[in-house]
Design a protein that fits this description.
The protein is an alpha/beta fold. The chain has a domain at about 70-75 and about 105-365: Metallo-beta-lactamase, Chain A, CATH 3.60.15.10. Helices cover about 25% and strands about 15% of the residues. It has helices at about 1-35, 40-50, 70-75, 175-185, 200-205, 270-280, 305-315, 335-350, and strands at about 55, 60, 105-115, 115-120, 125-130, 160-165, 190-195, 210-215, 220-225, 225-230, 250-255, 260-265, 285-290, 315-320, 350, 360. Helix 5 (about 200-205) links the parallel strand 7 (about 190-195) and strand 8.
Length: about 400
């Protein structure tokens, strides 16, 4: 009798726990469903399926993404004690009057942290992957939290001509920010340029279809006199458990009358980096993702040393590392991307500029490269201690021969 009683208690406890879990999942789905976005249908879906990048019901990379799940789990045990700042960061708060005078050289980049930057190029203003929210998550109450407030309020930005989105992960596609930009630009010609399929999210959130331009790799559009070209990238997409790679990912080349700029989005290293440089370069500035890497996911994020090599493959003149110093999304110390990128750039004689968040850079005036250190000196792992080597490159990736053929 006692055994039966315990079984009954355990059975009821399990049922109760299951009910609590089911309710919790339901709350998460209901609370986050708008932020998850929406899948493409109709003509949009048909266009996606005609893409050379579409395979077996989803988008695919020419070089597959390799994941080492064992190292991913063991990496948790060796997380840096400095994954986030111990003290408030020295951010440069932006006076909106800065943008009343155009850049003397025709090209100015203002880094807001992570992958958000305002690119002023030959009379046009382009905002890349703008994230002004407190958290990168479908929820306002949980998820990676930013380390500092935006250097400038959205309302204080100068008129923007185009927003370019590299892919639909939360730290790049931020619904509240896009809706605020939509509302602030009702009387302007602001357009949202996105990879294939991402437009479905934007329309679902209320951005007018006529303001959305969707591009496949190598496709281009014009913003005034500026040409915007979507370029290949090596990454992935998805905002929910069941939509992996249902939208495309991309980088962007911004080609003006005088200047050229390249933004990588999120990417691993891949052979077509050289093709981008040959077809669309040389670039006066490259803004290449440098942080959130680990050898357990070597193809998702390029890592500092390979980012410098990619800059060379792209035929870049000045490099600005991005995708660091705002969110903790990996195991490495938060200053490590800057330290490693700086060491690699010095070794390969690459002109590298590391502005503090909120600072503006005119690449043509930055011949000396690396600015004064604005981050603290903390312990970090070197490339020899923790190498990041993307797979599928065929021959070894070196400074003299960056990126072998697969």
């Amino acid at each position: 009798m006692k055994t039966r009683g315990w079984r009954r208690v355990l059975r009821r406890g399990a049922m109760g726990l299951g009910a609590v879990l089911a309710v919790g999942i339901l709350v998460l789905v209901v609370d986050g469903h708008t932020g998850f976005g929406k899948s493409a249908t109709g003509a949009r879906r048909e266009r996606m399926e005609r893409s050379p990048q579409w395979k077996d019901g989803h988008f695919d990379n020419p070089q597959p993404l390799v994941n080492h799940f064992g190292e991913m789990m063991s990496g948790l045990l060796h997380t840096s004690p400095h994954t986030s700042p111990g003290e408030p960061l020295a951010v440069e708060h932006i006076n909106p009057q800065r943008f009343q005078s155009p850049p003397a050289t025709g090209l100015r980049v203002t880094w807001m942290g992570h992958s958000s930057q305002l690119v002023e190029i030959d009379g046009h203003r382009i905002l890349t992957d703008p994230v002004w929210s407190e958290r990168v998550s479908p929820y306002s109450w949980v998820g990676p939290k930013r380390w500092f407030a935006p250097p400038i309020a959205l309302a204080d930005l100068p008129p923007i001509d185009a927003v370019v989105i590299s892919h639909d992960h939360y730290d790049h596609l931020d619904r509240p920010t896009l809706l605020a930009l939509r509302d602030s630009a009702k009387d302007s010609k602001l357009v949202f340029i996105v990879p294939l399929g991402v437009g479905a999210h934007l329309e679902y959130w209320g951005i007018p279809a006529e303001r959305i331009v969707e591009l496949d790799w190598w496709e281009r559009t014009r913003v005034g006199e500026l040409e915007v070209v979507a370029t290949p990238a090596r990454h992935a997409s998805g905002r929910f458990l069941f939509d992996k790679d249902s939208t495309l990912w991309a980088g962007y080349a911004l080609i003006g009358s005088k200047n050229r700029a390249f933004y990588s989005g999120d990417t691993g290293l891949f052979p077509a980096m050289r093709d981008i440089g040959e077809r669309l370069g040389p670039f006066d500035v490259t803004m290449i993702e440098t942080g959130q890497y680990h050898r357990a996911w070597p193809d998702w994020h390029i890592g500092p040393e390979q980012a410098v090599l990619a800059h060379q493959m792209l035929r870049g003149r000045v490099m600005i590392p991005v995708h660091w110093a705002l969110f903790g999304l990996a195991y490495h110390g938060w200053t490590e991307p800057a330290e490693r990128a700086r060491a690699a750039a010095e070794r390969l004689s690459v002109t590298l500029v590391l502005p503090r968040p909120g600072q503006s850079v005119e690449p043509e005036l930055e011949a000396a490269g690396v600015r004064q250190r604005w981050w603290p000196e903390l312990a970090w792992e070197t490339a020899e201690q923790h190498p990041i080597l993307s797979t599928g490159m065929g021959t070894p990736v070196t400074a003299n021969q960056p990126g072998g053929q697969p």
